[in-house]
Specification:
SH3 type barrels, single chain, two-stranded antiparallel sheet, 0% helix
């Protein structure tokens, strides 16, 4: 049975803060989203080192640095005015276009 894929409210380029876990309180910019995993990759957070054996056809061997994804339940978008975490909601502008807004302030999210 396949896992349901939900629409993610966070997008590439959003600045987020980590709400819980090992990186609590740290912030960074989203560099990749993973909807099937319900996770986002945040620049400079959850960086791990992996050791690879040299193999035929592998261009790089030795130690490589990877940025692993974080679950979206652990991160929240930062409202630039208040510098605090906020949830994301949706509203419609005068032209009828759907737009993302900060729940805390009601301001539109510029992306």
């Amino acid at each position: 049975m396949a896992k349901a894929v939900f629409k993610m409210r966070l997008r590439k380029g959003d600045t987020v803060i980590v709400r819980s876990g090992r990186f609590k309180g740290r912030s960074g910019k989203i560099i990749a989203t993973h909807p099937s995993l319900q996770a986002v990759t945040v620049e400079g957070l959850n960086v791990v080192k992996r050791h690879l054996k040299p193999m035929q056809g592998r261009p790089q061997a030795g130690e490589i640095v990877l940025t692993k994804p974080l679950p979206i339940s652990k991160v929240a978008i930062i409202d630039p005015r208040s510098k605090k975490a906020s949830r994301i909601g949706y509203s419609f502008d005068k032209a009828g276009q759907k737009q993302r807004v900060y729940k805390a302030s009601g301001k539109e999210i510029k992306s």
